[in-house]
Input
Amino acid sequence: MRTRILALLLLPILALASCARGVDAPAAASAPTPAGALTLDYATQFSVERFSDGYALVHVADGRDYALVPEGRSPSTLGSPNATIVTVPCDRLYLAASSAGDLLRALDALDRIACCSTSAENYAVPELRRALESGAIRYVGKYSAPEYETLLSEKCRLAIESTMVYHTPKVREQLERLGIPTLIERSNYETEPLGRLEWIKLYGLLLGQEEEAFAVFERAKRTVDELTTKLDAGESRERKRVAFFYVSSNGYVNVHKPGDYVCKMIELAGGRNALDGLALEPERVSALSTVNVDWEAFYQQAVDADALIYNGSIDGGMTTLAELIAKNELFKEFKAVKTGNVWSTSLNMYQESSRIADAIVDFKLAIDGDESRPLRYLTRLK
Output
């Protein structure tokens, strides 16, 4: 009831939101016609059909479509009746997907963000943290309970949500009821690391910065290509087994499903996923980007791994072996603990998604035990 009353009270403000369904605009001279597709090399969680006069139809793998309509042109769903109409180029963004923030930073587009659901102290990207601290970007509370009044007073025109919003569908419904269309960012469901980065092409399209987006992507692609070329040259060497994991407070071990982008990062870095042999329920594997496994199953697969990488994106990571062993004394029996080849990530590896090629290089150095230069995304536990 409170939400309904709020919507009625704020109706005058809704007229200001032009990035929504059914917004009136001058009539186009002719209906837009198909003009090819956006080139994607790795991403599978979205695709884009181009149309004449700058129109585009975005298909996201969750089944939702978005009709991108150039400002000043007639609204059109571009043949997809349920498509959400989004006026481009977009600004006044509400950012509720923290990993997307770094892609916007890479496009020098942080000034397009009006509101954010990640607080300054929880952002590892310095530029975003400073913008939040200065008030240039307003923190509006957690993604699950944003301050709708602030989103409207800040005239937010598009919400970029993470897949966590699937667990709070009423938030998405309320945003769209208030005239703020919602795009759910699914880059964490990509199976290729560069597929995750390739979402920058979608943001380039939304912001009118396609050329810059393609340039960022191509630079990262060259870095990865150079690394894999070197690895292919020494292909005869045996790949080291690497386990990437997180230990939850209830004792379960959280792992990335086989074949996802983190497992591919390990492969691109010259390693081999030590957890490929885990028996996982097929329906859970297809539905989630990570899964919980019991300690016994994890122990069996990882005890002889050459390297351990602790996923610190959830709890901030750790710096000592004692912290890891405190989670379970049996870690003392692990080969990687005995040899000292144990590492931890921090928040920045997940949040700095535009630098995924650099993270792969760090993985390569960690797997080889090479500390010839400081690593940005990994800390060796001592």
About this structure: Residues 1-28 have pLDDT under 50 and may be disordered. The domain at 2-215 is CATH 3.40.50.1980 (Rossmann fold). The two ends are 55 Å apart (CA to CA).
